[in-house]
Amino acid sequence: MDTASLLVDYSTNNLKHDWNLDSVLQLFELPFTDLIFFAQQSHRMFFDPNKVQTSTLLSIKTGACPEDCKYCPQSGHYNTGLKKEKLLQVQAVIEEAKKAKAAGATRFCMGAAWKNPPAKEMPYLQAMINGVKQLGLETCMTLGTLTKNQATALATAGLDFYNHNLDTSEEFYSNIITTRTYSERLQTLSNVRQSGINVCSGGILGMGESVADRASMLIQLANMPKHPESVPINMLVKVKGTPLENIKDLDGIDFVRTIAVAKIMMPKSYVRLSAGRQQMTNELQALCFVAGANSIFLGDKLLTTKNPEASEDMQLFKKLGITTFSTFNDNNKQSEITTSVTSKKNSNKLYYDATTASV
Ligand code: SAM
Ligand code: DTB
Ligand code: SF4
Questions:
Q1: Which of 60, 65, 145, 163 to mutate to test ligand 3, by most ligand atoms within 8 A of the CB atom?
Q2: pTM of the predicted model, to two decimals?
Q3: For the residues 44-70, what does the mean pLDDT come to?
Q4: Which residues are catalytic?
Q5: 257 vs 251: CA distance, rounded Å
């Protein structure tokens, strides 16, 4: 196979938005070391490979969700024994954000188990965005579908990121969710994009989907007019009481392959190694970073399930020589790299050479 023809010449700084299933499946089928090498090349075009962005999650409204997502402990359709909660008080959210900042996170992501944010809660959401931003943290929310007006209202309040996942391929989707359509998801993402909020969208692996489904989901994301700034790849956390609680474990190498393909297709995006790290070995996480993942959730809880302790993550980072972004988005580094790539255009050098970079 002519693998070179599968790759994008990023020396022109152009991203590709016309992926097709054949070419993406060919990436998935590459020998593992070739795939990882190409993913590293893509990654180094735009990022310092030894830096990882950290976000902390907080469930601001837990459980009793009207949607029937088969993976989700918060769906009201399943009995997972979860304690339901109303929307948290603004001050309580800000206190949690302070703790997240003290633990080293640069972004605070607030999640609510809603189909769509109720109008009466919008002022509180806006106050949360305000309060968290004042701490010097980036803000992210994930609240279900958003209308254009709601996206604009959150943008006006200063929201930096909105997370809304495709979760899986359009073809496999009806096996997982029946109460919200795939096109509603795409519409929300378009509303978020148009409002000027950064887009965070990805999916879950390990729900019984095929490799073609993983490819198809990544194609949906990469063929958007603008790639999502952030692409979370979750490994299914199997929660007792959900319909997927007994599904077969996902193979770790298949997970890493998906991270690598996502990075090749969307090299300028942060690919987040999201849910499922509690179940992973250090070695598997390290492979994910090598494949181009450069963001994690930091803190011992995701929304309702466990995540590794921050101290464990810091130990792993130390072992791997990884540092975290220390200031608001730390974009200087990324723009330095992007500039250096642009200036290398004529040198025919396809990747960022970390050995010459100042850390
Ligand atoms: N309710 C909102 C929504 O779904 O749009 C936001 C919160 S929802 C929990 C955010 C995302 O978390 C889901 O889209 C899904 O990708 C991920 N997620 C939920 N439960 C999960 C699980 N058990 N394992 C892995 N990822 C999960
Ligand atoms: C995403 O892709 N993963 C996060 C975040 N976006 C909101 C959520 C993971 C949730 C895992 C299950 C739980 O803790 O409830
Ligand atoms: Fe509700 Fe979101 Fe869970 Fe689906 S993933 S059941 S929408 S909280």
A1: 65
A2: 0.89
A3: 94
A4: 65, 69, 72, 109, 140, 200, 272
A5: 10
